[in-house]
Design a protein that fits this description.
Blueprint (H helix, E strand, L loop, with lengths): L11 H6 L5 H18 L1 H9 L4 E8 L15 E8 L9 H4 L8 H28 L1 H21 L3 H29 L5 H25 L3 H20 L6 H6 L3 H14 L6 H13 L6 H13 L29 H25 L9 H25 L2 H18 L8 H29 L5 H16 L2 H4 L9 H17 L14 H5 L25
Antiparallel strand pairs: 1-2
Helix pairs in contact: 2-7, 2-8, 2-9, 2-11, 3-8, 3-9, 5-6, 5-7, 5-13, 5-18, 6-7, 6-9, 7-8, 7-17, 7-18, 8-9, 8-15, 8-17, 11-12, 14-17, 14-18, 14-20, 15-17, 16-17, 16-20, 17-18
Length: about 550
Amino acid sequence: MDIIEDSLSVDLEKVFLESPLSNRWQFVMIAIGTLLMLENGFFPTSVNFYQTEVAFYCAEGKFVDGNNSEVEDVCESSCNQFAFNYTNMDISSSIQETFNLVCDRELLLRLHGTCFFLGQLLGSLIGGFASDRIGRAKMMKISYLVKTVCGVTMALSDSFICHLVAWCFIAGINTASWIFLTPLISEISKKSRRHIHVILLPVTFSIGSMLCALVGFLLPNWRHMILAMSGITFVAGFLLSLALDESPRWLWTKERYAEVFKIIRKGAKLNKCDLDQDLQSTMTKLSQQGAPNQTFYLELVSDLKRICGIYKSQSYSKHGAQDTKDKQYSFIDIFRYKVLTIRILLMCVLWICANTLFYGVFHGASLFDQNIYLYIVIQGVGGVIGSVLGAVLLSFLGRKMVAQVMISVAGLSFFSCIFIPPNWEYLILSVTFLARVSMELFFMLCFMWTAEIMPTVVRPSAISFASMIARVVGLAIPFIYQLETLWTSLPMLFYSLMALLSLIACAFLPETQDKVLANTMEEGNQFEVGKTQTKKATYDPPKLKSSSYV
């Protein structure tokens, strides 16, 4: 390496992230992160198999009312036991039967869907906050372990309340996983390949959705299916996440230089090359001036302090005095900057539209009256195609243009469904397939675009805030289908208008293609619209008396 200059600062981009030294390490970490998203496609898809409403009738008891008169409504009868008719359905068990969600308890079936979006809301609220304070990779490990426990609880519990609570946690962890992984992949990738690496996440998510259809087909009992998914979460989630390294960029902003240089040495080992002696000397001195290594117990205490906002930096200045400057940022800090405020609000509009339209298609098997297995597989294929198409388009076109094209296609797809007769099944499948292709890319663009617009110190918090706002609105998604009682095509018209609103919001956001990620709030606020950012993102640790890397 020949990067030594007169400056007494270290540029992490040149030393590692943008240098060939990181190539193999980046490949391994991105491969692990991408595979972790495979499991994330299982649980959200599984509701198509066991949350479906099933026709029921009285199997035991009198089909009469209190006056001993015959009645037509089974819910008005003196029925002791209900039976469920799965004829002409693609499932053989449901939570409606298991927890007897009939008659006056039938509304609880809708509550199951609302709890999913409530979990997403909580995951959005907590995910970015925790990620900014204790790390992206560490939160991934914790979340998959908790998710495994919740999955087993959900499958084995005979209490509907326990079932709902476990399901709420799973939905929250699923959402938080995106908030952990998207910034992590963005921060460890080279800027010229960032969009490709981030787009790989929805590819494996869609493949996971298709594999869920296979699990549902092989295990028609919903309890067995959830148990199998919990096992997959433990193996393909928790155990695999143990090999995931933390973001060097995030560690550097936290003055944890020793951990950064441990990753650099790992990268050199994977590349089978030796580090320059001057760089190793600089690394050693910076490690001594940064936050010291801690035992598991002390690290746990420090993480709890970070969450509570009372942690103080343990690094030392050149005069030997402890440096207590360790600002803990949150999404609230975004609203102290005018430009960042406008942009995060515009991103919230995009997130609301993306969340509403995506899940309108994703959970639309019953709405469009389609075969569950065929619908899920086709939608999964659409997700993969949308992601691959996005990787190609984003290599040539900017984020803004691709987002506008994709949301236009999705809006027109929903609008065309207004005029398609319900018995034209294959045409409906084709149109919803097109909507899924476009929404898969658009939803991923919301993650990517937010991560690129917002600075490192609040990146996960910004994604978390925008996602949280979208999930608040998402609490009403299970009830959007009820609009068809007023007019059959009203849900489709509603989705079309949401797409139009998103299209307008896109016009006021900046282009971020091939631009260096901002690290501080000031850099993010000065990010200019339509202009190439020429300033390199540098990190200036404490000054060293000897020469160091730039």
